[in-house]
Amino acid sequence: MESILVVYRSETGFTKKYVDWIADKIECNTVLFDQINDIDLNNYSIIIYGAGMHAGRIKGLKKFKNKVFGLDDKKVIVFATGAAPYTKKIISKLKADNFSESELNNIKFFYFQSGISYEKMGLINRTVMKTYNQVLKLKNNKSEIEAGTSKAIGKSYDHSNECYINPLVDFLNQILNKSLNE
Asked: Domain 4-117+157-181 is in which class?
């Protein structure tokens, strides 16, 4: 039987919500990234990393990759949560900005739309987001993307939905079923 560990970072609670939904569907252990040194990663055959996005980057991904790359026979899955809608163009950009082509041959990536929580955001991030929104509001001749971004980041919202994890859960079930049949 494959053993699964979900390692995650969740500053505003969106990623934690998705981790809890995954743990309800698949037998796994979960651990905050800050506690990864307390875990023997060799005890797991599947390691999942989940975190939110910041400026197009998956938070903590580089440190996570440094921890798991080089471990033998590990299946690695990464998911990101973010305020951007799920579109092919956005997913392609996230992959290009966060993974090399060779990494994408070894890592399965998923994206789950979540939202923005100014109430749970740290002071620096909240200030940056509010400032960016003010700049966009004041800009003349905004592009369609800039206008949409300004509207989207104007206030807190939550578009999280448990059904977004279904492709990841289906993928895990395929792996688990395959290992049972071997």
From this structure: alpha beta
Q: In whole angstroms, give the CA distance from residue 85 to residue 113.
A: 6
Q: Spell out the per-residue pLDDT of the chain, length 182, in tens.
A: 569 999 999 989 999 999 999 999 999 999 999 999 999 998 999 999 999 998 789 999 999 998 887 766 789 999 999 988 888 988 999 999 999 998 888 899 999 999 999 999 889 888 988 888 888 888 898 887 778 778 778 889 899 999 999 999 999 999 888 776 66
Boundaries of every domain in the chain: 4-117+157-181, 119-155
Give pTM, 2 decimals. Answer: 0.88
Whole-angstrom distance, CA of residue 150 vs CA of residue 34: 33
Spell out the alpha helix ranges (H) of 31-138: 61-68, 88-98, 101-106, 123-138
73: alpha, beta or left? (left if phi > 0; alpha if psi -120 to 50): left
Determine the 3-state secondary structure of 58 from DSSP: strand
